[in-house]
Amino acid sequence: MEQHIIVRVAHSGDIHYADTITNEMESSAKARGTGIAKRSPQYIADKMKEGKAVIAYTADATWVGFCYIETWSHGSYVANSGLIVAPEFRKSGVAKNIKKRIFELSREKYPDSKIFGLTTGLAVMKINSELGYEPVTYSELTQDEAFWAGCKSCVNYDILMAKERKNCMCTAMLFDPADHYEPTETKEQFEKDSKVYERLLRLKQRIFGKKEKETIGASRPKSLMHYFFNF
């Protein structure tokens, strides 16, 4: 029988899940060979207490998923970070529900902020596109040093620094409240280009696993390739 899953804003009563969440974040990153920037149980607990996180669980209190909000550049940028779903609940649609709620929470708390995310997964890109995000270059993200310092615990940090923070294994996506496409448009565009995205993600994994010469281009981006391989 399918279990009912509750998705809501987290609070101080949820801090007992913090260890489970951080352990799953770490094991999931290792399994993928990529990385979510590592966070401590205390950091996750603080996000819950501040009302800057969304949690999912079953009626019998089994933890299902989690995501939290971070702010950068004095609140000009907001990141929906650390999306994680327990293995037994993946492909159930709960990740989409968590992303939708954390996006709504971000808009409620920071209506004028740009919301961005970094992901190595096509599934997360799809969910983001349905919310109105679009792929962007790293230059359009926050340049707050504290944000990039948070990537130090990621297994791909050396790649990020070798690329002078212009690119890495992750793909950047952004929602700008002042200038954005409608979710129906970004969703339609993603569906149209999904096969291309899939190939580019695989290509990025191969390319960034090797040493290569830096290339410099001053022209305006003209294709999807720019958003994946902007050096």
From TrEMBL:
Protein name from the UniProt record: GNAT family N-acetyltransferase
Organism expressing this protein natively: Limnovirga soli
